[in-house]
Amino acid sequence: MINYEVFEREIEKGNIKDSYIFCGLDEELIKDGINSIIKKTIGEDKDNLNLIKIDGMKTNFDEIMNACETFPLMSEKKVVFVYRANFLRDKSDEASNNIYKYINDYVSNLPPYTILIMYYLFNDKRERANKNKKINSLDKLITVVNCDKLRRDAYIKKISDIFKDKNKEIGKIELMYFSERVQNNFDIIKREIDKLISYTEGREIKKEDINLLISNTGEEDVFDLVELIAQRKIELAMDIMKDILHKSDQHMLIISNLERQFEKLYEIKIGLNEGKKIHDFMSQLKLPQFVCEKLVMQSHRFTEKQLSGIIKLCVNTEKNLKSSGLDKTMEMELLLINTLTVKK
Fold it and tell me: What pTM value is reported for the model?
């Protein structure tokens, strides 16, 4: 079993195997890997007759085998691509288990002209390829690519490559900011990049463009998290934080959102002391009335001193998260615990 980064290095060297299983949560990342094999072996033509795609949720073993046995047309190789091959799941129905059994017996006798590629998606982040008995059995016969989250450098490089493929330049600072702000899911990443390119046509991408276009899908979660911090219900706050991490697995994104939330509350707290009203905050923060009303209500739960202290905790946690070798989830939990020590 190899990870995605090892797989990419092998493809760059031209070391292509006769069969693959891809698995993970990020379907777009998986498809990118599969497309790199197709590109290297039979070319990029979408209508290529040597590319056979099979729906893994509707297929049977005979369909897969017949596709593998058919000779390629005017080519040395053909690719049989079985997508969403749910028969590879540990817990499957009888029909799926039968397909798996036949596949297990068949793959060692694949024709030399066939490259068989299958993938299936994890149900959630708790699922692990190395815990799947079917995958572990096939790992002796097929190259299994575990498409887990990329390391930071590889993640940023892949995002940079997407911009390059679309002939759009982005500065290093803006690239880093975009990488930290966007959700770690390449389907979402590609859509957000398309939005940025369309919006900034004819000019360079700026940080303000990223802030404007990338929606903060976790605003309600962050609001709830701050509410629990205000009520000093830290255990419940930890549960909320784990739920947010489960959705995005982006510690930097969460801490930056949390920090911005407390900064808004601090601005509002100062403004209220100066006699400002809701419409002033609407203009100042460029937010709709109902959002400003919610923020004003939430600001009443903290003192000015508390907000200042919690912002400092967020800044320190952000610095720690950028350091290698630290348990990022533990750092986030320590932040929540330390909010209890901030004096009013």
Answer: 0.62
